[in-house]
């Protein structure tokens, strides 16, 4: 299961919910999309189908089929909207999902083992991969062509060219 949004509140009285998007795919909340809703009150997910979507400020406002009042969606607050692996969109060459990168071992172009990618940050122009190293501070690797030379998710291996000062 993969997170695509978090319900932070209800909106109005007609069953809309306010969602913080956790996906780069605009079509994830299109009308007709099926999502799994996980709430703190239930161990079993609820399958919901989007039948209304609009943007409001920095949020996505969603309405689900058969949930037509604020009372029906009140329990959805703080719930996570997820999709299954078969709902993932195909990617272009040299594009990867975070779950494919997190956990990969990182090596230099000379074959030296650096560590393991534990997190991905998205501060702006490019992603930054956080590499956990043994007995050292975490290494921040910018995901740019000059540094990241090879990514092989099947082998869980990333090769980087350590620009001057990167490993310090």
UniProtKB/TrEMBL annotation:
Main localization of the protein described in the UniProt heading = cytoplasm
Give the stretches traversing the membrane: none
Q: Which UniProt keywords apply?
A: Chaperone, Cytoplasm, Ribosome biogenesis, rRNA processing
The RimM N-terminal domain covers: 4-87
Asked if the keyword rRNA processing belongs to this entry, the reply reads: yes
- Residues in PRC-barrel domain copies: 93-167
Against InterPro entries, the record matches this protein to: PRC-brl_dom (IPR027275), PRC_barrel-like_sf (IPR011033), RimM (IPR011961), RimM_N (IPR002676), RimM_N_sf (IPR036976), Transl_B-barrel_sf (IPR009000)
UniProt function note: An accessory protein needed during the final step in the assembly of 30S ribosomal subunit, possibly for assembly of the head region. Essential for efficient processing of 16S rRNA. May be needed both before and after RbfA during the maturation of 16S rRNA. It has affinity for free ribosomal 30S subunits but not for 70S ribosomes.
List the NCBIfam families hit by this protein, alphabetically.
Answer: 16S_RimM
Q: Domain comment?
A: The PRC barrel domain binds ribosomal protein uS19.
Record-stated family: Belongs to the RimM family.
Assembly notes: Binds ribosomal protein uS19.
Protein name per its UniProtKB record: Ribosome maturation factor RimM
Organism encoding this protein: Aquibacillus albus
């Amino acid at each position: 299961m993969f997170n695509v949004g978090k319900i932070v509140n209800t909106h109005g009285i007609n069953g809309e919910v306010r969602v913080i998007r956790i996906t780069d795919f605009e079509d994830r909340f299109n009308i007709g999309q099926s999502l799994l809703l996980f709430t703190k009150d239930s161990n079993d997910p609820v399958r919901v189908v989007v039948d209304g979507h609009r943007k409001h400020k920095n949020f996505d406002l969603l309405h689900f089929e058969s949930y037509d009042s604020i009372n029906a969606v009140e329990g959805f607050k703080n719930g996570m909207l997820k999709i299954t692996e078969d709902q993932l969109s195909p990617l272009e060459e040299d594009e990867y999902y975070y779950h494919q990168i997190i956990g990969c071992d990182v090596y230099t172009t000379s074959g030296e083992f650096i560590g393991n990618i534990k997190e991905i940050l998205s501060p702006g122009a490019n992603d930054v991969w956080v590499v956990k190293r043994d007995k050292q501070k975490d290494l921040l690797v910018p995901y740019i062509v000059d540094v990241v030379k090879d990514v092989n998710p099947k082998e869980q291996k990333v090769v980087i060219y350590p620009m001057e000062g990167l490993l310090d």
